[in-house]
Design brief:
The complex is a heterodimer of chains A (about 240) and B (about 375). Chain A is an alpha/beta fold. Chain A is about 35% helix and about 30% strand. In chain A, strand 2 and strand 3 form a beta hairpin. Chain B contains 14 helices and 12 strands. The chains are: A alpha/beta (about 240), B alpha+beta (about 375).
Chain lengths: ~240, ~375
C-alpha cells in the first residue's frame, strides 16, 4: 500500500484538494468528514493520510510514509541534507512563503548580514552575552548564519508568535516565515537585504528511507502519471530510490 | 573508533596508568588536579562559545525545566570556577576527564573522549607562560611514552597586529580579525576593501541619524541602546568614505596569509613580505622566535614544527599563540593535543579585568593509539 500524507487543515489542504481535482483525482474521506484517512477514487492501493504539515516532514524523514505534501521550509528544517533521505518530486505552485532574517526597524545601521555580523560581535563584547535569534527554524538558521560567517549569536527556540520576540525582549533578532511581510512590518521589523534564507512553497516529496516494494512502486508510478502526465516524475524518482 | 566507545579492561588500565603519569607530572610542576561537574548549566557554553560549539554540545533539560549541557570542554567550567572563587593569580590547574561532543555528519567519531590538560591563569609575563605550557606539553607526551610527534603553530595576535598596522576603519579591522580563522573568507574581505561591498549609503551626521531613529520610535529597540545604534551608524557612514587599501599592501597580506611550512622558513618569508609592505611587527615576530627557541631547547626537530599563518582554532576563543601536536595512529595523522592563549575568556566569564590565560588539552586516548602504532610500526 502506497501512503501519501497531505495537510489536515488550512489553505494547504484546500490547495492540495484543488490540485488533485484539476488532475481529475477525486478524494474520498473514509472515516467521516473530519476523519484522518482518505482514499482516491480509482486508486485502491493508495492510502491517503491527513497529518499536520510538520508531522508530514518528520514522517517522510522517518520513512513512515512514501509520499507527502508539505512546505519546503519544513522539509529542509527537518532534513538539512536531503540526499539519500528525501526527494522533492514537484513544486506545487502554492503555499509560497519566505524564511527570512528580520531585525528591528530601529536598527537603522543594520541592513545586511555583514552588518548583523558586526553587531553580533559588538553586542557580545558590550553586553557580555550573545545576541539571541528567536526561531522555529534552528537548522536553517544555523547553516545560513554559518554561510554568512556569523558565529557570535545563539538560537532561542520559538514555538509561535516569533515576530513578537524583539518587542517582548526574549530575543534581539528573528528568523521566521513570511508571505507578504505585513506581520513583520506590524511588529516594527524589517527583512535584511540579503536575509532571505529560503523561498519556500508546497512540495510533493518522497521518502527515500521508506519501504519501496514492487507493488508500492507500481502504485506510485500510476498515481504520479495521473497527477502530472506531462512530466517524467516517476522516472526521476525511481533513479533516487534505493 | 565507535560513536559509543566501550572501554574494556586493558583499555581502562592503559588509560588510568597514563593518567596517573600525566597528573603526577602536572602536580610536580605546580598544577593540582580539579574537576568540574559533567553536567553544566547550558548558558555558560552557549553564551561564550558561539554557535559552532553549540551545534556540537549535548543539551538536556532537567526535570525542573532548567537547560543543562554535558561539558564539551573543561576549560570553560574551570575558568568560571576561578572567577567565582576570586582565585589568587597566577593559578595553575590540571584536569583529566571526559568531554562530550556531538559529531553531526560524522557517525564514526566518538561522542565522548578523555582530555587531560592544564590551565595557567593570570601570569602577567606572557612569554614565560608560553614557555612553561609548551615545555609541559612536550614533557607530558614524553612522560606518556610518545616521542614521535610534530607541531603546528600559529599566532592570532600576529594577524591582529598586522591588521592594526593598516590604515583601515575600526569596524573593518575588527571584521578582519574576527574572521581570521576562516580560510578563504578573509581573502573575500580583502577584495571588498579594494572594490567596496555594495552597502547602501547612510546619512552620517548625528542629527540626521537621530531624525531617522525618531521616525522609527515605534519599532522595538531589541536589546541595543539608542547610543549604541547612533555610534555604529556614524562609524559605518564614516568608514564608507575611508574604505580603501593600497593594492600592494592587500597583495602582501594575501601572500602572508598563504604562508605555511617549516617555521623557520615561514618566519623569514613573513619578515620579507612585511618589509615590502612597510609594516613593523617586530615584537610579535620576536615572540614567535622565542617559542621556536623553546622548542629547540626541548630537543624538538625544527623540521617538524610547521608555522601556518592561517592557523586558528575551531574553539573560537583563542586570542594569541595557538598550537597543535600531531602523531599517527593506524588510520593516519591524528591531533593528539591542542592549546593556546585565550586572554579574553576570564573577562567574558565575569572577571573584573583582563586575565592572561593559556592552556593545553591532550587527547589521551589518541596518545595511547599513537603509542601503540609507533610500537607496532
Amino acid at each position: 500500500m502506497l501512503t501519501l500524507a497531505i495537510p489536515s487543515k488550512g489553505r494547504l489542504k484546500d490547495n492540495c484538494n484543488a490540485w488533485f481535482a484539476s488532475a481529475g483525482v477525486t478524494m474520498e474521506q473514509t472515516v467521516g468528514a473530519r476523519g484522518y484517512r482518505a482514499s482516491f477514487a480509482g486508486f485502491p492501493d493508495v492510502e491517503v493520510m491527513l497529518l499536520s504539515a510538520s508531522e508530514i516532514a518528520s514522517s517522510l524523514l522517518a520513512g513512515d510514509i512514501h509520499l507527502g505534501i508539505t512546505g519546503e521550509d519544513l522539509l529542509r528544517e527537518e532534513a538539512p541534507e536531503l540526499t539519500g533521505r528525501m526527494h522533492l518530486i514537484k513544486p506545487l505552485g502554492f503555499g509560497f512563503a519566505d524564511v527570512v532574517v528580520a531585525v528591528s526597524g530601529y536598527w537603522i545601521d543594520v541592513s545586511t548580514m555583514a552588518d548583523l555580523d558586526d553587531v553580533c560581535a559588538a553586542y557580545a563584547a558590550t553586553h557580555r552575552r550573545r545576541l539571541r535569534v528567536a526561531t522555529k527554524y534552528a537548522q536553517l538558521t544555523r547553516s545560513f548564519f554559518a554561510q554568512a560567517r556569523i558565529s557570535d549569536y545563539r538560537i532561542v527556540p520559538s514555538a509561535g508568535a516569533t515576530e513578537g520576540a524583539p518587542a517582548a525582549g526574549t530575543a534581539e533578532v528573528i528568523v521566521d516565515i513570511t508571505t507578504t511581510g505585513a506581520t513583520l512590518k506590524d511588529n516594527g521589523l524589517k527583512i535584511l537585504d540579503d536575509g532571505v534564507i529560503l523561498k519556500s512553497q508546497a512540495q510533493l516529496a518522497a521518502s527515500l528511507t521508506a519501504d519501496w516494494g514492487p507493488d508500492v512502486r507500481t502504485s506510485c508510478e500510476a498515481l504520479l502519471s495521473k497527477l502530472d502526465p506531462a512530466s517524467p516524475l516517476y522516472a526521476t524518482l525511481a533513479k533516487q530510490l534505493p | 573508533m565507535a560513536a559509543f566507545p566501550y572501554y574494556d579492561t586493558p583499555a581502562i588500565d592503559a588509560l588510568n596508568s597514563q593518567a596517573v603519569t600525566l597528573l603526577k607530572l602536572f602536580g610536580e610542576k605546580g598544577y593540582a588536579c580539579e574537576e568540574p561537574s559533567v553536567q553544566q548549566p547550558a548558558e555558560i557554553f552557549l553564551d561564550r562559545s558561539g554557535e559552532e560549539i553549540r551545534r556540537r554540545t549535548f543539551t538536556l533539560m532537567d526535570p525542573s525545566g532548567r537547560e543543562l549541557c554535558l561539558r564539551p570542554d573543561l576549560t570553560i567550567p574551570i575558568c568560571r570556577q576561578a572567577v567565582q572563587e576570586g582565585r589568587k593569580f597566577p593559578a595553575r590547574i590540571a584536569y583529566n576527564g571526559l568531554v562530550f561532543r556531538h559529531q553531526p555528519g560524522e557517525p564514526h567519531r566518538p561522542t565522548q573522549f578523555f582530555q587531560a590538560g592544564v590551565e595557567l591563569l593570570g601570569l602577567e609575563d606572557k612569554a614565560v607562560g608560553e614557555t612553561e605550557i609548551l615545555t609541559l606539553t612536550i614533557e607530558a607526551l614524553r612522560a606518556a611514552g610518545l616521542n614521535d610527534f610534530s607541531l603546528r603553530i600559529g599566532d592570532l595576535a600576529l594577524f591582529g597586529a598586522l591588521v592594526d598596522a593598516l590604515a583601515l576603519p575600526t569596524q573593518w579591522r575588527a571584521r578582519l580579525k574576527r574572521h581570521f580563522w576562516r580560510a578563504g573568507y578573509v581573502e573575500t574581505l580583502l577584495y571588498w576593501l579594494g572594490h567596496g561591498d555594495g552597502k547602501a549609503k547612510l546619512p552620517g551626521t548625528r542629527a540626521e541619524i537621530e531624525e531617522l531613529l525618531d521616525a522609527r520610535a515605534d519599532a522595538p529597540m531589541a536589546g541595543r541602546s539608542r547610543e549604541e545604534i547612533i555610534a555604529r551608524a556614524m562609524d559605518r557612514a564614516a568608514e564608507a568614505a575611508a574604505l580603501h587599501l593600497d593594492p600592494a599592501v592587500a597583495d602582501a597580506i594575501a601572500k602572508l596569509l598563504d604562508i605555511s611550512g617549516p617555521a623557520d622558513d615561514s618566519l623569514a618569508r613573513i619578515r620579507e613580505l612585511l618589509k615590502t609592505a612597510g609594516i613593523n611587527l617586530d615584537p610579535q615576530l620576536a615572540a614567535m622566535d622565542a617559542r621556536l627557541a623553546t622548542l629547540k631547547t626541548l630537543g624538538v626537530d625544527p623540521a617538524r614544527v610547521q608555522f601556518t599563518a592561517h592557523f586558528g582554532r575551531n574553539m573560537e576563543y583563542y586570542t594569541g599563540f595557538v598550537f597543535e601536536l600531531w602523531a599517527r595512529d593506524k588510520e593516519g595523522p591524528v591531533q593528539i593535543a591542542g592549546g593556546g592563549r585565550y586572554d579574553s575568556m576570564m573577562e567574558m566569564l565575569g572577571a573584573k579585568k583582563t586575565v592572561s590565560a593559556i592552556g593545553v588539552a591532550l587527547r589521551t586516548e589518541r596518545v595511547l593509539a599513537a603509542k601503540t602504532f609507533a610500537g607496532v610500526a
